[in-house]
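Hey, quick one: can you model this chain's 3D structure?
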Amino acid sequence: MQILDDNALSVNRASKIFEMPQRTLNRQLNEQGSVSTELICAVYKNFPAVSLDWLLGGEGEMYKSQSSAIADAVEISPYYANLPVTAGDMGMFSDLQELPDTYIGIPGVKAQFFFPVKGSSMEPEINEGDIVGVNRMESIDNIELSKTYMIVTHNERMIKHCMPHETDNTLVWCISPNFPPFTIKKEDILAMFNVVTRISNV
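Sure thing. Here's the predicted structure for all 202 residues.
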């Protein structure tokens, strides 16, 4: 349960990752049955940062790294290869209900999700084929032009610099090096994420 909590996984999503029935997983997690070898192997395969000594015998630290468990857990984050973020042409938004293709861990980087980038509007800062790591913002009222954001609307998922509109507080400017600035309504923004890291495709 701690591993699921650290990685923001529901039992339903975990059961798909572990390729086992949700009912079976739920029973084992709620201590209504013994933990199976199948579950132990699935956890170790999908969360390689977890210490095998801890997993099998409860010995030592939960994670292999000497840093804190929470820090290690955040480093291993889902990567959605089939949900590209557009930096140019617009793409449809998925609400991340599908399973991640794999997990990415970068020492010292705390990113909730990783996505591939398509399009060239943010070059040379972010290039097509790069992978970005993002963290969800609690509020869109504190945006800064110096930062890079992933913006999610009903039909778009894009990377831009942003700044508040000068005279209309219901609008946000979206800015990129290679395309003209444009505005979007705050009410159309479903979610906004800080881009906290970039993995270059070079």
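One thing worth noting: Helices lie at 2-6, 11-18, 22-29, 37-46, 52-57, 69-75.
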